[in-house]
Amino acid sequence: MSLPPGLSQGQFDNALSEFRTAVGNDWVFTIDEHIAMYKDYFSPLQNTEAQPIPSAAVAPDSVEELKVVLRVANDYQIPLWTISTGKNYGYGGPDSRVNGSVIVDLKRMNRILELNEEHAYALVEPGVSTYDLWREIRRRGYRLWTDGPSPAYASIIGNTLERGAGYGLLGERAAAQCGMEVVLANGDVMRTGMGANSNAETWQQYKYGLGPYVDGMFSQSNLGIVTKMGIWLIPEPPAFRSAEVYVSGHEDIIPMIDTLRPLRLSNVIANSATASTNQGGHIEGAQGPGGGAGGGPNVDGGHAPGLPGWRARLGFYGYDRVVEANWEQVQDEFASAIPSATFHSSRFAAPYNPDEMLTESKLAAGIPSFQEAPIWNHGGTFVSMVMPFTGADYWDFLQTYDGLYQEYGMRYMGGPLHFHAPRSLMTLAGVPLSSTDNAVNERAMALCENLIRVSGEKGWSEYRTPLVFMDNAMESFDFNDHALRRFHETLKDTLDPNGILSPGKNGVWPQRLREERA
Amino acid sequence: MRKLILKMLFSVLALSSFNLLAQEDITAQGEEVYMARCEYCHGEGLQKGGTIMLHRRYGDSKPAVLHQRTDLLPEYIRNIVRTNTPGMTPVRITEVNEKELDALILFLTRNNP
């Protein structure tokens, strides 16, 4: 069992006893068997002493209980690490950055506080998963669609705060967030946007309120704990077409991206489209994350690869004639840019039956799924870059990454690409890990660090990064001697002077732990 | 005396039917836990990860859909739920508490011989 930094066993026992008073004996976890459930089994640091081990986990059921947890952490200067459902796999799962942290597990706060069909939104607590919300909408018979990542157990708040990607009309998850309740490190409870007016009925309808818009400060952040969040939903469309465009040449990705861009920018393709190689995503022999929702990163285990073609996945929604007209236009655009392009699509109409849809269509219809499990056999880690939305930039990325992968005895065939933030391109490169061979993981770490460094030099930076690379990834945001990070840390020291909230999250360290920066 | 025996018999019957009812209730609770926390990965359908994995592992020798199995033992279920296994990370007590896990086990073992 580990201890929080600087605390004696006696001091920690006292703190635990105060945590137990706050949340109840059953909801403070300290024995090894329980702590093991708060470990990231897909960490590149797995099976090494470098993987931080929590000293305890504490699971409050309410804001009032959470406030006491924060008071105790401040009194004893205990680093906390907050998780909603702790399923951020590929990016760190429930792991913390400082050995001996106390995990604040918010899964018990799992209430859907409001579900509004008329205005198409929900107000949820951190423990609510995408699947919980989807089921509740169906139970009530509301004509609403959700959006979100593929894994059904992901927290809506957690994934939205991580600025995750969905596949439907609200796939840019951070943009679908409206209004928050945040508990600050000192226990103060704040509501943002219109929620700051206690009488307002528009907390989930207008994001900005008056004055500085602060919601973004609490995403990918360690400045507060978000305990409630408004999330926009989609009125069920009368018709929906789930479509795919196939191109056979590897270099066809260049015109494919350049054809997609104007269609995406003008909202003819209004959903969070994706593209991936057409080899079915996952190459046998690779042990890392592949396949699944957006198609596979196609890390090859070492045998002779062919150069794959590509497929783009699109969704069209709305009135039947509009859906059909948009899809026809999109086919015309692709056919004129890439004459060999082929098309496949499936049409659905309300009332929708999820059992008739394959995963691709389900995702574009916001139906949580879970096809990935087999892929996660051994675990993997992601390097996810934001870059300009052009075929030339992506081709440069592909050559650069394949070159670097080859230095480590692997190949990178590309994909998946996400077009959820419609004016940029986001790429996801998976690096396989091993649950038994540490050498594989050391090699993966070295490759990832290289990918991040070289990307930074090319002007690509990560939109989201695994825990172990947070300092590396933040390093690439270097303008004016890291003015942005200096600003983050000025806020950190002001709002959380004891540095108790998730120290090191995305490379932002509190003063007293700043020497921990990698 | 006869009255007493009848009375005793009646209480035994009442008690056992009560237990039976309670057990059915708990099994139903277990089914709800299964539908909320397990089915999206382990249920019927071609594209559910857990079902895919179990099919790969057992072929046609055992049902790939978890709730159709009749050979799962309580301790085995508990162990799979709470510890890391390939493709399935631990389900924490905050996700499925001990009482819910007991109910889930009752549901998944309901058809065991």
Note down, in words, how this protein is organized.
The complex is a heterodimer of chains A (518) and B (113). Chain A is of the alpha+beta class and 518 residues long. Chain A folds into four domains: 9-105, Uridine Diphospho-n-acetylenolpyruvylglucosamine Reductase, domain 2 (2-Layer Sandwich); 112-235, Uridine Diphospho-n-acetylenolpyruvylglucosamine Reductase, domain 3 (2-Layer Sandwich); 239-471, Vanillyl-alcohol Oxidase, Chain A, domain 3 (3-Layer(aba) Sandwich), CATH 3.40.462; 477-516, Orthogonal Bundle (Vanillyl-alcohol Oxidase, Chain A, domain 4). Helix content of chain A is 29%, strand content 20%. Chain A has helices at residues 9-23, 32-35, 63-76, 130-140, 156-161, 253-265, 320-337, 359-364, 391-407, 438-458, 470-475, 479-495, and strands at 28-29, 56-58, 80-83, 102-105, 112-116, 121-124, 144-145, 177-184, 189-191, 224-232, 234-235, 239-247, 274-277, 299-300, 310-318, 342-349, 380-387, 411-412, 417-418, 425-432, 461-464. In chain A, the strands form five sheets. In chain A, strands 16-12-15-13-19-20-17-21 form an eight-stranded antiparallel beta sheet. Chain A has a five-stranded antiparallel beta sheet with strand order 5-6-10-8-9. Chain A has a four-stranded mixed beta sheet with strand order 1-2-4-3. In chain A, a hairpin with a 4-residue loop joins strand 5 (112-116) and strand 6. In chain A, helix 1 (9-23) packs antiparallel against helix 3, helix 6 runs antiparallel to helix 7 and helix 6 packs across helix 9. Chain A starts with 8 loop residues before the first helix and ends in a 23-residue tail after the last helix. Chain B has 113 residues and is mainly α. Chain B has one domain: Cytochrome Bc1 Complex, Chain D, domain 2, CATH 1.10.760. Chain B contains five helices and no strands. Chain B is elongated. Chain B starts with a helix and ends in a 5-residue tail after the last helix. The model of chain B has no long low-confidence stretch (mean pLDDT 88). At the A-B interface, helix 4 of A face helix 3 of B.
